[in-house]
Specification:
The chain is α/β, with parallel strands linked by helices. The protein has one domain: Nucleotidyltransferase, domain 5. Strands 3-2-1-4-5 form a 5-stranded mixed β-sheet, sandwiched between helices. Helix 5 runs parallel beside helix 7. The longest helix is centred in the C-terminal third of the chain and has 17 residues. The protein is globular, with a radius of gyration of 16 Å.
């Protein structure tokens, strides 16, 4: 059984370091043990995606920047086997960019992409987060960082219950294989 952290970022604009919210859900032995959500003040007041997630500059201008949020959430990364994210390339890029902008070390665990996991495990198509959540019967308030990361955590939990094993990096389900997104 794994210990992992599901992560979801919401961004203010096209800058990959423009995180304005982070949702984190820690799972140990198929059980959610901790949930955190934080609003983040991005490096600039430029907001292009309010219509997607509802977060405005006025909501975050007095919130801490990523370098001040990081010490509060970094303990959740300790002792994890992997990070999980839906469309992990996006969240990995945001995490890398925020760490680089504020000269913070990037967490070392690799990412598991729950888009790929859902496609390979259950042949779900399309695999946007609302589609996979519906398929698995999960509650979702899409583009709410905590709700998205909770859904992502539950996708991995469901995959583990259905036989997926992170240790080997793939699961043989008939002729289908799941690979790490690293």
């Amino acid at each position: 059984m794994s210990t992992f952290l599901a992560i979801d970022f919401e961004t203010a604009n096209y800058g990959s370091d423009s995180a304005c919210a982070i949702g984190l859900v820690r799972v140990e032995d198929k059980t959610i043990v901790s949930e955190e959500v934080r609003l983040i003040c991005p490096p600039t007041p430029d907001f292009n995606f309010t219509h997607i997630h509802g977060i405005r500059w006025e909501d975050v201008e007095f919130e801490p920047t990523f370098d001040h949020v990081w010490p509060e959430v970094e303990p959740l990364f300790e002792g994890i086997d992997f990070l999980a994210a839906h469309n992990s390339a996006f969240d990995r890029k945001v995490l890398n960019s925020c760490c680089k902008t504020y000269d913070l070390p990037m967490p070392e665990p690799e990412f598991i992409c729950t888009v790929q996991l859902a496609r390979k495990m259950w042949e779900v198509r399309p695999t946007k987060l609302p589609n996979v959540a519906h398929f698995l019967g999960l509650d979702l308030d899409h583009h709410d960082a905590l709700s998205d990361s909770r859904a992502c955590a539950n996708i991995v939990i469901a995959a583990e219950r259905d036989g997926w094993d992170f240790v080997t990096g793939y699961e043989n389900v008939g002729e289908r294989y799941i690979a790490f997104d690293g």
